[in-house]
Amino acid sequence: MVFSSITFLFFFLPLVVVLYHVAPRPARNAILLIASLLFYLWGAGVFVLLLLAAIVTNYIVGFVVQTAHERGNRLLAGICITISIITSLVILGWFKYANFFVDALNQFGGYLGTAELAWSHIVLPIGISFYTFQSMSYVIDVARGKANAMRNPIDFALYVSFFPQLIAGPIVRFHEIDRQIRRRSERWDDFCEGTIRFAWGLAKKVVIADAAGAIQVRAFDIPIEDLTTEAAWIGLFAFTVQLYFDFSGYSDMAIGLGRMFGFKLPENFRRPYASLSFTDFWRRWHITLSTWFRDYLFFPMGGSKGSTAKVVFNLAVLFVLVGIWHGAGWTFLIWGAYNALLMIWERLTKRNFTDPEAVSSPLRRRIITVFMLMMGWPIFMCPTVASALQYYARLFDFEFHGTGALGPWLAPENVILMILGGLTVFLPHDFYGGLWITRSNSRSARLARAGLLLIVFPWTLMLIISGTFSPFIYFQF
Asked: CB-based burial of residue 167 (10 Å sphere; 0-12 exposed, 13-18 middle, 19+ buried)?
């Protein structure tokens, strides 16, 4: 079940909202838990058992770890934490990377003339990367003393399976939401703000991301011999716009849904395409994943402290793991390594584009940063390294022959929406943040926002009812 489906919008969500708000307060977490499990069961089927196993296992481990700490038995606590983390990573690795490793072994065996391994393709459970990281953060936070183990199994199960952010984040650390699960205020203002945030996120996804996606899909599907330079650049720009609006739109919807039930989930994007440097970009893009890796991997490895070689090593490990977190394949590994090289180059040369002496114009800094980031998207998007290299070749062969096979798919409304979306995300933060309609709390500004929403939201619903929406990109991760 996806947020932009008719089933969710017109049946599931209204029913859950009504049941939640008419129920007595002590029963509300149980209602959300049941709704979350049904939500996951609808899309994942039997894999709901894997989610339940993660809930039960980590609940027990958290309880044992805290009890061991209270009794001064650090050895038992350490053993439990180690077993829990290794088990979580092994299960995640099995479902996410087993197919890739077997394919790689068979390919290597083909060079040696050995027989292929018999293998049944393993289906990746949706959301497993996200709820695995949340479960691990719980055990680690309890072990570090940042949070107390949750005694109520319903509350803990809700933390792991809360449906607004279960499938594609934001990744919520336990210490960020512990108190909200146990006791939170539910105000009418929060419900209204959450509804508006959800509606805007839905519009970002259905109106802009899907419009750009319609162009991107055609550009990347064109046989390479028919792909022109112009079509390749249009496709790359379309994917750049689509990826941001698709994922940030989902995050907006998740945050809005959480707010409707009294939760304040962490922000996941802060206008990343307005970044002044690569470091700045990773502070703004998929923030909850970046900070998860920072706090649970990069800092324990030593972070930016130590020798230059040590820092370079830490950055390389960090971004390669970020890359393969997104998927199993050489393309994701190379994409992670590419981002590692950008960060390492920035660190070694100290040209982080925030120094006025490095690059004088803020606009130029933004252009350079976004251009270099865009150069990583083909390897991220293409299914194989070979197809990515062919796409790069088309980008830079500079033989202009028009839009070619892409031309018939450049519907004017999609092109206009893609360009408008691109302009809004590439605008500098200080300009966008100063816009009257986006930041002012005056009555006239609120009325203007409401009026704009009254135009956009029905349009969004019409597109959904017509069946033109497409799946969220990050569901595959």
From this structure: buried
> Range of 62's domain?
6-184
Q: Is residue 302 part of a domain?
A: no
pLDDT of 434: 44
**153 assigned to some structural domain:** yes
pLDDT tens column, 205-253: 988 898 898 888 888 888 888 888 888 999 999 999 999 999 999 999 9
29 & 110 share domain? yes
Q: Do residue 92 and residue 216 come from a single domain? A: no
Catalytic residue numbers read 326
CA angle 131, 259, 3 (to 5 degrees): 60
Report the number of distinct structural domains present in the chain: 2
Same-domain check for residues 175 and 241:
no
Q: What is the DSSP string of 315-373?
A: HHHHHHHHHHHS-SSHHHHHHHHHHHHHHHHHHHH---S-STTT-S-HHHHHHHHHHHH
**Which residues, 6 or more positions from 210, have their beta carbon under 8 angstroms from its beta carbon?**
242, 463, 468, 469, 470
pLDDT in tens, 140-176: 999 988 888 899 999 999 999 999 999 987 999 888 8
Helix (H), strand (E) at residue 251: helix 229-260
